[in-house]
Specification:
With 338 residues, the chain is α/β, with parallel strands linked by helices. It contains 11 helices and 12 strands. The chain has 2 domains: 250 residues, Rossmann fold (3-Layer(aba) Sandwich), CATH 3.40.50; 78 residues, no CATH class. A hairpin with a 2-residue loop joins strand 11 and strand 12. Helix 6 packs parallel to helix 7. The radius of gyration is 21 Å and the shape is globular. The two termini are 31 Å apart. This is Peptide/nickel transport system ATP-binding protein. InterPro entries: AAA+_ATPase, ABC_transporter-like_ATP-bd, Oligopep_ABC_C, P-loop_NTPase.
Length: 338
């Protein structure tokens, strides 16, 4: 999918977004100076190791973070089609924000059992969401709409009468996806939605997300630690490390020709979903301590390509070829390094 970034296609703009955790040991910078644009109808993947900041970024975008996490700077500009001008989600009052959640911005979290109410049947949980958009829906209309939503993700209508614990893990996750579609959102935020399922169900869920996105046209922010998974679904990929974006580009380019050494290491840590098996190498060392980040590049202690400048000067995210990268040793064609 090729998307031209103009004022008419922009859906969400992150401008200098920074999030910190306020702890007794000090302020922990979980996300720092994040700048990213998500366009209408685009699937953008956000990848990185644990503690890279990707899930914190999603909760900041949706204003679902809880103390001690706080947004300490920046904007999240939402260009909804139902408003004449963009709104800054960071500054919205809670009642205004509640009017956007589910109706325009939906969330699919990684643990379905933590999100679905265990003491309510599926039909009651779907009805609660559907009535946000249309409080006058009658029982017959609700059942018809719930059945249609479940059918979209391959679940038989009878399952609306089940409790969450009566469903398999894959069905629970697909129910969450159907719930996210209930009010025809413009943006769906997905935080590792396939983590708790096996590879076969993972593939099925990915295919259903793609099919729904192509049919309904919503944009997706898809967070995962697995780059090979994003190759299957994303238009663009943003790589996070140490709370910062270190590379952005088309999914094909980032996966095939990663420019940042961390991106290459992340790719080589997971087996491809649809390609021949290759040797997995991983990344030496451990993620950085966010309370004691190095003065220069946060990845340099683990990087085999580091130079002296990497230890002292933090690289800024700059355009390179058809993407952006924050690396002193990056080149447009990674093969030039050899």
């Amino acid at each position: 999918m090729t998307i031209t970034e103009t004022t008419t296609t922009r859906l969400l703009e992150l401008r200098g977004l920074s999030v910190a955790y306020l702890t007794e040991r000090g302020r922990v910078p979980a996300c720092s100076d994040i700048n990213l644009t998500i366009n209408r109808g685009e699937i953008i993947g956000v990848a990185g190791e644990s503690a890279s900041g990707k899930s914190t970024l999603l909760t900041a975008i949706t204003r679902l973070q809880r103390i001690p996490a706080v947004t300490v700077g920046g904007q999240v500009l939402y260009h909804g089609s139902r408003a004449a001008t963009p709104v800054d989600l960071v500054e919205l009052e809670e009642p205004e924000l509640a009017g956007l959640r589910w109706s325009e911005i939906s969330v699919v979290m990684q643990s379905a059992m933590a999100c679905l109410n265990p003491v309510l049947r599926l039909r009651a949980q779907f009805a609660d969401v559907l009535k946000v958009k249309n409080p006058r829906l009658g029982k017959a209309e609700l059942r018809q709409r719930i059945a249609a939503l479940l059918a979209m993700v391959g679940i038989a209508p009878d399952y609306m009468n089940h409790y969450p614990h009566q469903l398999s893990g894959g069905m629970q996750q697909r129910s969450l996806i159907a719930l996210a579609m209930a009010c025809d959102p413009e943006l769906v935020v997905m935080d590792e939605p396939t983590t708790a399922v096996d590879v076969v169900m993972q593939r099925r869920i990915l295919n259903q997300v793609l099919r729904l996105q192509r049919r309904l046209g919503f944009a997706v922010i898809f967070v995962t630690h697995d780059l090979s998974l994003l190759l299957e679904i994303a238009d663009r990929i943003a790589i996070m490390y140490g709370g910062r974006i270190v590379e952005v580009g088309t999914a094909e380019r980032v996966y095939r020709r990663p420019r940042h050494p961390y991106t290459r290491g992340l790719r080589d840590s997971f087996p491809p979903l649809t390609e021949p098996v290759r040797r997995l190498t991983g990344i030496a060392g451990t993620p950085p301590n966010l309370l004691q980040l190095p003065a220069g590049c946060a990845f340099q202690p683990r990087c085999r390509l580091r130079i002296d400048r990497c230890a002292d000067v933090r690289p800024e995210l700059t355009e390179l070829g058809d993407g952006s990268v924050a690396c002193h040793v990056a080149v447009d064609d990674p093969e030039e390094r050899s």
